Every structure is written in C-alpha cells, then in structure tokens.
User: Fold these one by one.
Assistant:
Number 1:
Amino acid sequence: MQIVKAQEKSMLQKVKEKQEELKKKEKELEERFVKEETKISLERREIEKREKDVDFREKEIEAKLEKEREKMKKKEEEFGKMLWDAAEKNNQRIEDMKKKNGEMVEDLFGTIKKSKGVSKMEIKRKIFDIFGDEPEFCAICSICCEKVIDYIALPCSHAYCGDCLMKVKNCPSCRTEIIKRHKFYTS
C-alpha cells in the first residue's frame, strides 16, 4: 500500500506540476491577449485618427476647390462683361466711323456738285483733306482687281476704275442705275 500511496503522491505531484504549468501558460496567454488587444485598440485609434484627418483634408480640399470654382466663375463673368463692353465699344466706333464716312462722302459729293467754277486741283485737295494725303482707299478696283488709274465715284458712294464702269449700266455693288459718274484724279 505504501507503493500505491507513493505512486499516488507521485501522480498527484505530476498533476500539480502540470496544473501549475497550465496556469503559467494560461497567465502568459492572458498577458499576450491583453497586449495584443491593447495593440489592436491603439491601431484602431490610429486608424480612426487617420480617417478623421483624411476626412478633414478632403473637406478642406473640397472647400478650396469650391473657392477656386467661385473665383473662376467671377473671372468668367468679368471676362464676359469685358468682352461685351469691348464689343459694344467697337460697335459704337464702327457706327461713329460709318457716320463720319457718310458725312465725308456727303461733303465730297457736295464739293463735287459745287465745283462748276472750282479747279480740279482744289477738288483734289478737298478729297485729300477728307481721306488723307495718300488715297489708299482707291488703290484696287473691286471689279477687275487691278490698280486703279481713273477712279470713278458713283452717286451711291461706290467707286471703281473708269474702264470697268464704262462697261456697266448699274452699280456692281448695289445694282443702282448709273446716272452720273464723278472722276477723281489721284496722281
């Protein structure tokens, strides 16, 4: 019986050792679990922080983009207004030039009508006063596309070279019947 008791004691000793070993392993596992859980928790917090930073940056970038869009829209509106104003100014200048040219042509034809006792040189000076020193306005005939030698003006205010106008009965531009022809001396 003593042998049995010794064997029991030995087995109990082994079981206690195994239990203590298991407790140590369990404690180690618990500590590892707590460490891993803490590590995971810290990583989650870091991820959440980064997500918040990313969200904040996205909102910040979106706000900047919106401001830039507004600036671009304002610039487009300003540019459109500038273009509109420039177009209006150009249209006004064109209208003013048309009016001035019409007045100059009227003045020219008035001078030609009154020129019965006036020399050709005086008429030529009057034309140069109206159109400038170099009569570039009459350099090329729009019918034959040649350099004009004998420049003829019609009452409808269109002008061509003399040779071309001798061949037609109506103005080539506006189809008005040619009643009178006024010859300009440009050389």
Number 2:
Amino acid sequence: MSMAGDAGRERLKAFMSERGLKPKPWCDASGVSKNTIYNFLNGTNSTITVDTLEKLAKGAGVTVPVLSGSEIEQPQEPISPEHLTIAITEADHLIERTGATPSEEDRGKFILDLCRWLQNNKP
C-alpha cells in the first residue's frame, strides 16, 4: 500500500489538518525527511512509499490504514482522574530525581503515555 496522486495528497492534507500536524515536526518525530512530505504535497513526487507511510504513521501514533484513510481510528477510553493524578505525580518525581528539564510538550506527552499505560495495565 502506498499513498499516491491527488487523492493521496488530499488525504494527507486532511489527516494533517485533523491532527494539527505540521510537516517539519511530524517528519522529525517520524524520522522522515521533511522534503518527502513537501515534495508529495506540492506534486513533485507522486507517491509515498509503504516504508515512509509506516514511519509517518508511527510518528503520528496511528496505524497505516488510519493514516491512509482506509480504516477509522477507534476512540480510546477516556483517561480517569485517578490515573491522571498518579501520572502527574510520578512524572514530576521522576523529572525531579533525574534533574531533567523537559519542555512542557514533552512533559505532557510523557504524562499521557503514563496514563495510557496505567489504563492498559489496570489490576
């Protein structure tokens, strides 16, 4: 499966818009050259390879079928207030103990990851 042509371009633009994704940060998170996206979006390249789609999907936290529009993403269970409190407390303790200075965005992502982990590993 690859993404190709005008339909692929429109799907990628819609996906980016839905998620508030900007090409450079998304490519950085995905390990893909930003020129890959720019060249596809402006029509210089007519396709995006399966390998690149897999990297972009991973960078966006979705599957390739969700990215390509062939599958609808299943909504996640809402985060419980209890899990959020635990995740914030644990993240802040870890940050303090290690002396790390993450950006607010990275701290938020870490807390969200901890919440999801707690929800997926309930006793």
Number 3:
Amino acid sequence: MDERRCPTTEKVQEMVFPVGCVFLAVVDTDPATLLGYGTWQRVAQGRFLVGQNDTDPDFDTAEETGGAKTINLAHTHDNHTVADVRSQAGISAVIGPTTHASNLSAAQNILPPYFVVYIWIRTA
C-alpha cells in the first residue's frame, strides 16, 4: 500500500498528536485509553498555562514554572506631613512625622477566575 495516498494508522496518529503535544480534557481518563495510542503524563497540576514569549524572561522557555497563589502585602511607610495645619474654623494642630503600617498582614489571594481541566503531555 502506498503510504503517500493512504497513510497507516500510526502515521495518522503521529500527525494528530505527536510526541510533545498537550491534550486537555474534563475527564481524568488517560489519553492513551481515550485515543488508543501513546504514552501520556499529567502535567501542570494546579498551575495556569501561559503562552511562550521570547522577549519575557519569565515566559521564554516551554515547561518553565513560577508564580504564587498568594502574596503578602504587609508594609510600612513614613507619612511626612505639614508641621502646622489650620482649618477654616481657626483651629490649629501640630502634626509631626508618623509611621503607618498596613493591616494587610495576612497573605492575600491573587488567583484570577479559573476553569479546571486535566492536562496531559504525550511523552512517547
């Protein structure tokens, strides 16, 4: 049989999901069972996918990981205010430098809205 006109099942499978291809599903069944071929490994569990970007060092390499689910926003800063404040009512007060601490001592959730899927990569 001439494979140029009628490729084998294996050739078609290689064209559809070659090694290194990612498969997304909302069922946890191994793609080898669903498709009938290949070796698949679950990847990116609990992680978002982001497109590769040659000009951004955070996203320039495939399979790179990073980020955090929460961030601590606690901080302090000095408030330097005017030494003599007068209101229109004629009341005055002397205000010196103060230090302010935020009440954000607990880690803050920074997760964007999400949709969970099973992510598999074909390894063989």
